[in-house]
Amino acid sequence: MNSFHAHGKLLLSSEYMVMHGATALAIPLNLGQTLDLIPRDRTSSFLWNATTPEGLWFSARISPASLSILDTTDPEMAGQLVHLLRACISLQPEFQEQMFRYDVITTLDFSPDYGFGSSSTLIALMADWAEVNPLDLHFEVSDGSGYDVACALAEGPILYTLRNGSPRYQPAPFNPAFRDQIYFAWLGHKQSTASHLKEISGTIRPDYETIQTFSQFSQEMLHADTLDKFREIMEKHEAALSGILGVERVASRFEGLPGSVKSLGAWGGDFVMIATDADREMVMEYLDKKDIKTVYAYNELVYEGG
After folding, report:
1. Number of domains in the chain
2. CB 3.0–4.6 Å: which of 17, 103, 128, 252 could bond 214 by disulfide?
3. 89: in domain
4. Does pTM surpass 0.90?
């Protein structure tokens, strides 16, 4: 049985701005998605089952010859899957032969509501299987920046830049000495990144200076050597982006927490990053009172290779 794995992701800086050319700092996660190929004898259809920690998430039976959907639990997801399969074939025509040989099981390590990259990890997995460039595949099927697909196959944190439609990324030596004082908390609902970006893309027109400012935030965040410095950058980043978006900072929802809170990804949903000198017990007790139950310490979540 052939198996492929890709990492989930979090974007620590330059959310929204990365689409306009700002350099972003992103981290791959220990949690991700696995794709297993199950050999089979029949050639009339192949079965695709997608699972999460809660069980079966999605299932479809597809014709390998026409890529038509024979039956499915979710027609919209099945349509997206077929679109992805067709994109793989357009980049690697020989890939269609694989559809006649295997059933597929994907296993997501996290809830798809978390915004950790259920779509980006799948694109990376499919690129690995089809033996095509993952970012080429991404731009065939998505309007996003592609940082998440780059993260899916990275061996540690990265700096990612998209300029004139051309992605560039490199390993980033992000290894904060104060890692034990960083937490990631889920706000309890997922923001649809694709639709959200599309909704506001027409309202953001950052100039060169603004783009450079956010690129500098990424560099400063990467090289911050104390918790106080890191918190200062988080707060400057939040204040600058709040002014651009016209959206209240998420920190307003965390009054009384000794530390700084930064939105991650699409504002208003998904995860926040908390940097605090409070002890873990105090942080967890505070968040529990806020009815925030899903909380990860930095070391529990961030993949650093190996």
Report:
1. 2
2. 17
3. yes
4. yes
